[in-house]
Amino acid sequence: VVRTGTDTDEALAAGRIDLVVGGPHEKPRGSVRAETLLRDRFVALIGGRTLHGVSRLGAARYAAATHVVVARDERPTFVDEALRAHGLRRSIALVVPDFASIPDAVASSELVATVPSQLARRMATRARLRILPLALPLPAFEPRMYWHTRSDADPAATWLRGCVATL
Fold this sequence. Notes:
The protein is an alpha/beta fold. It contains 6 helices and 8 strands.
């Protein structure tokens, strides 16, 4: 398991990596194939005392909250673009490299995290967090797996893709 960079297609073509799991923003080029693994919606994940009594987050209240985000860099995310379409901006207090950091950050603060609902349910049961639906229209969460066409018929690669799709 490796963290990929900008040379994902080249690494797949050279056989340095067999499979990439990433977001829909990563467009396959050349001889790279893609398969969507699932479709999910985003929700707000908050600490047990954060926004007490609130059962749904409207766009304005969501934007007014202080956020923790998963990002590789400082560029605006799809959430920021959706808020901008409504004339809103959010305050980001913490940027983390992956979703594993989210439960502790949210549980010990008043931060709001935007995460896929399936992941939010697992996080919420482990850390006593609350899940709130968002009134802000966001694109679906659609992670994909990518592989080079040279491994289309390879039994081991086919097995690996099947395992990833099942999980």
